[in-house]
Each structure stands twice: as structure tokens, then as C-alpha cells.
Amino acid sequence: MTISRNARMFLAALLGVGLAFIYIPLSVVVINSFNASKTFSWPPSRFTTIWWTKALENTGVREALKWSIFAGLSATAIALVLGTCLAFAVSRYQFFGREVISLLVVLPISLPGVVTGIALNNAFTKQLGMSTGLLTVVIGHATFCIVIVYNNAIARLRRMGTNLQEASMDLGANGITTFRLITLPNLASALFAGGLLAFGLSFDEIVVTTFTAGPGIQTLPIWIYNNLFRPNQAPIVNVVAATLVVLSVVPIYLSQRLSQDSTTGGRF
Amino acid sequence: MRLTALLTAPVLWLVVAYLGALAMLLVTAFFTIDSFTGNVIQQFNFGNFQDMLTDAAYKNVVLRTLGIAISVTFFCTVLAIPMAFYMAKIARPKTQKILVALVLTPLWASYLVKIYAWRTMLEPGNGVLDWLLKPIGIHSPGFGGPAIIIGLSYLWLPYMILPIYAGLERLPNNLLDASGDLGAHNFYTFRKVILPLIFPSLVAGSMFTFSLSLGDYITAQIIGGKLQMLGNVVYQNFSINLPFAATIATIPVTIMALYLYLVRRTGALASM
Q: Which cellular components does GO assign to this protein (chain B) (predicted)?
């Protein structure tokens, strides 16, 4: 395609500006975790790794990480089951209210988190008389994770079609065998991508968590939030933040190795 | 039979755990609280909505929030178009893959960490921005409205780049060549050929940037200074006056529903 050299250079420069905009703040976070100063000062005058050792020993961080992983895994497991069931129903059957379901499933992620948060809190504590805790966090997270799995699964199911399953049935396999040997293996990478995204979303969620966690449970984002304005905790917060920045490469690496349809994350 | 088995659990979950909770919240918006005990009085009335619509303070918050959401969408669009264009049409296939990964990666970095990063960037006096830009005479805007716009644009930029990138990838190169052959300049081709064809992508991206900004309150808490968005008003009323929080919460939901309706009418989503 013919684009003048000047136009190319101009666009490349804008791309550079955009990437700088994206990566300078993230780099600052990582560099700052080695900043020897206990209070914030930029540029750092000395560097140290002492905050990294301190953060590793910090019980609050460890507890929070444990809760985050537990809540993320539970919510992802629930979302995988419910999202896949829903995707099968919508892609393979015609029924009354099918359109409504595809709207219903995206609603939890489309409405502002604060609305979902106070709605769930009100329902759990005022209407059902439950106390907020790990269970309510998992229910809240699973609710908005369903759509992620659903989107990934339904895209794959639509592309797969039903020919392979019909062939399998024609050759005498029953429904369970066909599901186990044909459908599931074909669906697996989409489910993995969906599960990964759902876990990532849950792991990072703060708003709905604020309203469903109660005082006893601190997930990692809640821990960061609670310590953000405590000056003496700043070095530890910096390390946790830097760790999360560095770790964000892992899912990208995994999804790049997966099929192409999952590289945009299925969020679209 | 099999359909029922597939549908029961997920539909039950979404309807009971989610729609039920939303419906109860909506009903609560029509209740009031006992100003003495703070308990919710379950008596249906429109008092909260009257308060909300007559108090100028809330009108200002709505307008400010809308202004922020629109600005964020605008900045994301302006930044995303050239980036996506380079990625889709100029970069070599190998570079292209790397660029997509570079744009995607920050999506996985924690929301809070990104806003925290901007706190250290914007810190007036000894922040990174002041250190970087002082030599050319620019100062950090500090914490407030501009900071919120920068922070939210930063958070949602990838959500704008990716649909535009996808739209441009689908756009055949020979359309651009044809436009050039017919004598159109780069900018003219952009305005008359590219922009109309990627419009659905812009709309898709704006649904993220606009709606995610509309309901946000954490960013305003961390880098907004004293500035309040709709979400902050909901958050603050939540513990002291739940019915009123529910009433305010209907505003972003209504705006979003309206926005979705408009988007549907343009037919942009159908052609995605």
C-alpha cells in the first residue's frame, strides 16, 4: 500500500508516544519498588532490594494473596460450569427467550461495578440476612465471570458446528462418549482462555469485592487499597504493585501460545 | 429435556443472584430512611428522585461525570486511531504480533496498580511528571479533574485500540490504494474512506471507555483530589442512606441504557 514516507514516520512517532504513555507509568512502579527511600521521592537516590524481602515476609500480603487465589479459583470454577452450559444451550438449541439470555449474561459486566456491588450487598446482608465473607465474594465474582467463559465457549461452539458430533454419533458413540472424546477436546483451549480471563478479572476486581467482602476478608486489591494511603506501608505496596506489573506478562504469553481467537482475550 | 438441564443452573444463578439483587435495589430507591434511627422505611414514594432532580449539586455531578466520560472517550479515540493504524497497516507481521502483545499486556496489570502509578506520576512537586517535564516548562496538573481524565484514559486505552485494530485489519488495502489512485491525499482518504468504515469499531471501543468511566469512583478517590464523580456519591451514600444511593445509581444505568439504545439505532453493532 502506498503511504508516503512522511506519513509513516508521523504514525510511527504517534505509536511511540502511545507506547510511552502506556509503559512509562508501569516502569516507574517497577523502579520505585527498588527505591531505598522510605517516603516517596523521585528520582530515587539509592536502590535496595530490602523491600522485596520485607514484602515476602509480610503476613498481610500473604493472607491477601491466599484469599485472592482462592476466590479467583472458586469463581472461575463456577463460571466455567455455568458459562459452558449456557453457551451450549444458546448455540445448539432454539428456545423462547434466547435473546434475553445473551443480554442477561452481559449485564453484570456492563453495569457499573458500584451498582452491582451495592445491589449484591443489599441482597446478601439486608434481604437474606447473610454475613459478608468469602462465600459472598465468590458469588459476586462468579456472576460477572460467567460472561467471559460464555463468550469464549460460544465463539468456539459456533465455529465448530455440529458435523463432528453427528459423525461421532453416527459411528455409534453415545452422547457422553461424544462429549468426552470429540466436543470437550475441541472446546478445551477456548475454555482455558476463558478460565484464564475469568481468573484474571476476579484477581483484579476491587469494586464488587469492596461491597461483598466484609471486614474479615482482604483480597490483594483490597489490601493494596487499604494500604495505599498509609505512608509507612508505601515500600511494601510498591513491591506488590511491581510484582503485579511483572506478572501481567504471564497470561499474555499463555494466550499468545493459544489459538488466535483468544489473543484479543474474548473481551470483545 | 437436555436443554432444561443446561439452562436451569446458569439462569437460576443469574436471575436469583443478580437480577433479584438489582430489582431489590431498584425498589429500595423508592424507600426512605428514618433520619433518627437510620433504618430503611419501606414506604413507596418518589422523595429521593425529587431530591435528586431538584438539588443543583447532583446535576453538577452528573454533568461533570458525563464530561469526564466523554473526554476520556475522545482522548482514547485520538490516541488509539494512529496506533491501531500503524499496527494494522504499516507494521510487518512479526512486529505486528509484538505490538498487539504490548497493547494487551497492561490490560492484565492490576487496575489499582495503574492508578497508583499515576499517583506517583502526578504527585505535585516531586512526582515523575514534574521531573520529566520541568525542563520544558510544563507542570503536573496535580490531583483533580484532568488527573481523573488522564488516569481513566490510561486504564481504558487498550479497550479502544483493540476494536479499531480489528476493524482496520478487516479493511482491504486496495480500498486505500484506490482512493490514493483517484487523487485523494492521506488525510482525505482517512476522512472519507477509513473513518466511515471503522465507525463500528469506534462505537465498540467507546462502549468500554464511556461506560467504564461513567461508573468509576476508585480513580476519583485516588487521583481526583476533592473532585467527585457519580460513583463517589453512590459510594458515600451507601452506608448512610442506602435508598438515596440506589436512587443515584439509577443515573449511570439510565445513561448507559440510553447510550446502548442510540448505538443500536445507528446499527453500528450489527455490522461488527
A: plasma membrane
